[in-house]
Design brief:
InterPro entries: RmlC-like_jellyroll, RmlC_Cupin_sf, UCP019307_cupin, YjiB-like. The protein is of the alpha+beta class. Helices cover 15% and strands 30% of the residues. The longest helix is centred in the first third of the chain and has 11 residues.
C-alpha cells in the first residue's frame, strides 16, 4: 500500500529576498494531506517515505519559534502529529497552517518560524544526501554570506514525497 495519496501535487510559492532572509529563486513547496499516516506510527511513516526517496539525517521535533533559515541545505518537514501555524519566507512571507500528513519542502534560504502549535505537534525533518545543516539567524551579515552559499547547494536527487518523477524534480529544474 502506498503512503502517498494519488495525484499529490504541491502548492508552490516563491518568496522574495527581503534583505534579511534570502529565500530562494526555487519555489517553496507544500504537499497538503499527501501522506496517509499509520495512526500507530506516524513518525515512522514519514521517516520511511523520506528514506525511500533518499532524504536522510532525520530528526523528530517541532519548528523553532524564532525566524531562521538554512543556507547550506534544502529541508523537508513532514508533519506526523498535530498542527501548527508557521510563517514561511520571513517576516514578509506567508503564514500557513500545516497539519498531520502535510510535507513542506524548503529550498535553501527559506525563512521559517513557528507562530503557534498544538501540544502534540511533531515534525520529521530531513535533508538530501551530502549536505550539512546549519541554523542561520536573519542578520545583514548572515544574509551576505548566504547569498554566496545558497547557489552552491546541489539539487536533491528526488522529491522527498513522490520520488524521482515528483513535482520537485519538475519545479526545481
Amino acid at each position: 500500500m502506498s503512503v502517498v495519496r494519488n495525484n499529490a501535487e504541491p502548492l508552490a510559492i516563491v518568496f522574495e529576498d527581503d534583505g534579511l532572509v534570502p529565500n530562494s529563486i526555487l519555489p517553496f513547496l507544500v504537499y497538503q494531506g499527501a501522506v496517509a499516516l499509520d495512526p500507530k506510527n506516524p513518525e515512522e511513516t514519514i521517516e520511511t517515505l523520506f528514506g525511500a526517496n533518499r532524504w536522510g539525517g532525520t530528526w523528530r521535533n517541532g519548528v523553532y519559534d524564532y525566524l531562521h533559515y538554512h543556507s547550506t541545505v534544502h529541508e523537508a518537514l513532514g508533519v506526523a502529529r498535530g498542527h501548527a501555524r508557521v510563517r514561511f519566507g520571513g517576516d514578509h512571507g506567508q503564514e500557513l497552517q500545516i497539519r498531520a500528513g502535510d510535507v513542506a519542502i524548503l529550498p535553501a534560504g527559506t525563512g521559517h518560524q513557528c507562530i503557534k502549535a498544538s501540544d502534540d505537534f511533531c515534525v520529521i525533518g530531513a535533508y538530501p544526501p551530502g549536505s550539512r545543516m546549519e541554523i542561520t539567524r536573519a542578520t545583514p551579515e548572515n544574509h551576505a554570506k548566504a547569498l554566496k552559499t545558497i547557489p552552491k547547494v546541489k539539487l536533491p536527487p528526488a522529491d522527498p514525497v513522490t520520488g524521482g518523477d515528483g513535482a520537485l524534480m519538475r519545479l526545481w529544474r
